[in-house]
Amino acid sequence: MRASESDLGRFSDAGLLVLASLAGGPKHGYAMIADIGRFSGTALEPGTLYGALARLEKAGWIAPEPAQDRRRPYRLTQLGESVLRGQLATMREVVSTGLLRLGQAPA
Amino acid sequence: MTPRRLALALLRLYPHHWRERYQDEIRALLAEHDVRFRTLADLVFGAADAWLHPGLPSGTELSANRRARTSQFLACCATVLYALALLSVQQVRDPSPPWLAAVGRFPAIRLAFDAIQLAGGLAVLAGLGGFMLVTIVMIRQAGAGGRLLLRRQLWLAGLVGLGWAAVTAISYVMIDRRPGTGIRPLRAIDLFLQFGWSLDSLLSMLAVALLFWRALGQADLTASIIGVTRCTITAAMFAMATGLIAMLLETGLVLSSAPGLIGPGWLAVIALTMASATVLIGLARRHADGRPGVGAERLPG
């Protein structure tokens, strides 16, 4: 993991969820919270969401789109996509190792 | 006030540059979001995070000049808060005699008495934590500055500490020492010792600042500016450690042997302190927002 990836600190989990949400296309804040709630069961709150968005934007992993009314959608950048792929590959390795050690075959 | 209106009001706790970038979006989000207590708490933590990371959001980095102004004003706020809390504490009437009399007749009341003392002790620790938070914000915001900025912060820390010592000594004089209150008459040595203890706190505060500068890799720079060796800075670290331990011991002593100093009146003290903090943080934000760039010619950028 590059040094900049660790800069997300306690927002790393929220950051990963946001990246995963934006992998499905650009979304604004409320749509992100709803989407993340659907696929992960995590109820993100606005303070945490925007803390993560600020860090992801500074890292260049997401980028803002032109505002629509007061809502501003964000999209995943190419750099953000490669970071997400790397993170998910690591997680997949962790999941398959854990399942094997529990005596279950990975799906 | 509805939870949603309260959440919108809490957005004012965020730094100005943060609100310029995100406020409209968050307001739109809150209009659709189910606002609960955890939403409010999350916004408060988010505001603290925004103040502690002035480099966010991207493209809105503050100049060293503006950081210095904000830092200095926040430090002044911290001093005023501490002074208000100390002066308020000394106005609290000693609640222990009626409590102790009641405990003598009904021993079961001891539990409630102890609970109040414990709550008071925790409130003291929370207050100290808040003071530390303001100090950390000050140091973090000043961290990007150069030598002149660092020197100014050292002077500021010294002035804050001296004010701290003076207020502590004055408040000590104001303690109600009438016969029957259980507090012995004031002696000159008491005032001297109190001022000395406050100066110890000053050393601790300076050492806290030095710890953060050290963390920022500026220990050598700090040592050269104030004309000391790294050994002296290390000694200051020990002063910090002893100061913090002293504070903990003092709180423990008050809890165990001087219950008259902690009681229901503390709730009023804490409420006053929190109200003052709200007002002063608002003032600090306006001060930081209102006059960007003033004094740029006197500070390194």
Descriptive account of the structure:
The complex is a heterodimer of chains A (107) and B (301). Chain A is mainly alpha-helical and 107 residues long. In chain A, 61% of the residues lie in helices and 6% in strands. In chain A, strands 1-2 form a two-stranded antiparallel ribbon. The longest helix of chain A has 24 residues, at 78-101. Chain B is an all-alpha fold and 301 residues long. Chain B is built from eleven helices and no strands. The two termini of chain B are 43 Å apart. The relative contact order of chain B is 0.14. Residues 211-217, 253-258 and 263-301 of chain B have low confidence and may be disordered. Classes of the chains: A mainly alpha (107), B mainly alpha (301).
Provide the fold topology.
The complex is a heterodimer of chains A (107) and B (301).
Chain A: H1 3-6, H2 12-22, H3 29-40, H4 46-59, E1 62-64, E2 74-76, H5 78-101
Antiparallel strand pairs in A: 1-2
Helix pairs in contact in A: 2-3, 2-4
Chain B: H1 3-10, H2 16-32, H3 37-52, H4 64-91, H5 96-105, H6 109-142, H7 147-173, H8 188-215, H9 219-226, H10 230-257, H11 265-290
Helix pairs in contact in B: 1-3, 4-6, 4-7, 4-11, 6-10, 6-11, 7-8, 8-10
- The number of helical runs of chain B is 11
State the low-pLDDT regions of chain B, or none.
211-217, 253-258, 263-301
- Helix and strand sequence of chain A: HHHHEEH
Shape of chain A: elongated
Strand proportion of chain B: under 5%
Largest interface: A-B, 21 and 27 residues
Question: What do the pLDDT scores of chain B average to?
Answer: 59
